[in-house]
């Protein structure tokens, strides 16, 4: 008997209130947040259960080889009304050695920018460890940071080791399936737990050298980021687009930044989506059609490509971010509680 075909599916959003605003998880396989399917015959099942049961049929061979039974990427909206604390993410090697976890690489896509919008990304000049430590203690660390005034449609790759924060902006975050990050400074919040000592040797103290990146408004489909953890393309959905996924070896994921549309697979009912939605197309689906239902519909397409032996972070639109020195790698550290963040 033929296996029942997996269908494209959205997942139930889960909002988490923070002091700075709201984080809305659209797709997450994190344990303490486990997205639940809304569509198709698997509606009501969590993404972790789907992964355990359908494995490569759902994610494909490429993600399964590295991530096993964990869904490899996370999609969430960050509605930042105030200012987040200053963070740093570990890379995969550090996270595995110290915490038996995945590190975190993320793409920030600017969906809205308020009058006071700022992104703090890396340092504006080379900084010494002693200087950074001192300015974190006396509250003047902002003097060292590279500050960007973001515009709608720009995207920024937040790589491991880069100190980062955001203010008065709405971001769509596509990231490796991990919330392992460390708070270095909390501005005017004396109650916030800091992880400066645990994360100090993870920080890249070199200057940030990537110009703001914005897609080509004339392009229908444009690749905007390629990392070992995920590949992201921007799709301006002006007319129906037929997508072929033959031999890709990975699922496809579509996050709707604005507008509305439908995703159709032969023999299945169309799946309609609106701004904010995220859809996973299982790897076993080989053909689909995206159709706009509103003017100006914009999607991000996320997939995984085969990993190289050596991880390389590539921004197709800018000079690569300069990585800092490697750390020695400690073992046996206690995994930070993500609920504290």
Describe the structure.
The chain has helices at 47-59, 61-67, 92-99, 129-138, 196-199; strands spanning 9-10, 14-18, 21-27, 73-83, 86-88, 106-123, 145-148, 154-158, 164-176, 182-185, 213-214, 221-226, 231-236, 241-244, 252-258, 260-264, 271-274, 278-281, 287-292, 298-303. It has 341 residues and is mostly beta strands. The strands form 4 sheets. Strands 2, 3, 4, 6, 7, 8, 9 and 11 form an 8-stranded antiparallel beta sheet that branches. A 6-stranded antiparallel beta sheet has the order 1-18-15-20-13-12, with no helix packed on it. Strand 16 and strand 17 form a beta hairpin.
Strand content: 35-45%
Number of helices: 5
Which segments are poorly predicted (pLDDT under 50) over 5 or more consecutive residues?
A: 309-335
What summary fits the major beta sheet? 8 strands, antiparallel
> Please, what is the oligomeric state?
single chain
Radius of gyration: 20 Å
Mean pLDDT: 88
Large-scale geometry: globular
Structural class: mainly beta
Q: What's the helical proportion of residues?
A: 10-25%
Helices and strands in order, then pairings?
Elements: E1 9-10, E2 14-18, E3 21-27, H1 47-59, H2 61-67, E4 73-83, E5 86-88, H3 92-99, E6 106-123, H4 129-138, E7 145-148, E8 154-158, E9 164-176, E10 182-185, H5 196-199, E11 213-214, E12 221-226, E13 231-236, E14 241-244, E15 252-258, E16 260-264, E17 271-274, E18 278-281, E19 287-292, E20 298-303
């Amino acid at each position: 008997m033929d296996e029942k075909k997996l269908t494209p599916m959205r997942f139930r959003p889960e909002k988490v209130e923070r002091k700075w605003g709201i984080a809305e998880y659209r797709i997450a396989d994190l344990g303490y947040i486990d997205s639940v399917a809304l569509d198709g015959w698997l509606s009501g099942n969590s993404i972790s259960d789907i992964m355990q049961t359908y494995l490569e049929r759902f994610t494909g061979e490429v993600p399964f080889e590295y991530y096993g039974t964990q869904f490899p990427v996370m999609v969430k909206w960050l509605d930042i009304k105030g200012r987040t604390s200053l963070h740093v993410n570990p890379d995969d090697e550090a996270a595995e050695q110290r915490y038996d976890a995945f590190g975190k690489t993320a793409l920030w896509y600017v969906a809205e920018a308020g009058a006071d919008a700022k992104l703090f990304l890396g340092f504006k000049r080379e900084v010494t460890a002693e200087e950074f430590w001192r300015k974190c203690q006396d509250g003047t660390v902002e003097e060292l940071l590279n500050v960007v005034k973001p515009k709608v449609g720009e995207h920024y790759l937040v790589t491991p080791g880069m100190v980062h924060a955001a203010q008065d902006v709405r971001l769509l975050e596509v990231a490796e399936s991990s919330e392992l990050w460390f708070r270095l400074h909390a501005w005017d919040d004396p109650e916030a737990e800091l992880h400066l000592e645990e994360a100090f040797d993870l920080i890249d103290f070199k200057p940030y050298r990537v110009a703001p990146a914005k897609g080509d408004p004339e392009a229908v489909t444009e690749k905007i980021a390629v990392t070992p953890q995920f590949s992201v393309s921007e799709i301006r959905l002006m007319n129906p687009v037929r997508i072929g996924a033959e031999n890709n070896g990975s699922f496809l994921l579509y996050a709707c930044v604005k507008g509305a549309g439908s995703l159709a697979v032969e023999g299945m009912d169309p799946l309609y989506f609106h701004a904010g939605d995220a859809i996973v197309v299982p790897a076993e689906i080989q053909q689909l059609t995206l159709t706009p239902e509103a003017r100006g519909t914009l999607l991000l397409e996320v997939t995984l490509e085969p990993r190289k032996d050596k991880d390389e972070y590539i921004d197709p639109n800018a000079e690569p971010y300069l990585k800092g020195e490697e750390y020695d790698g400690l073992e046996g550290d206690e995994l930070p509680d993500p609920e504290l963040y």
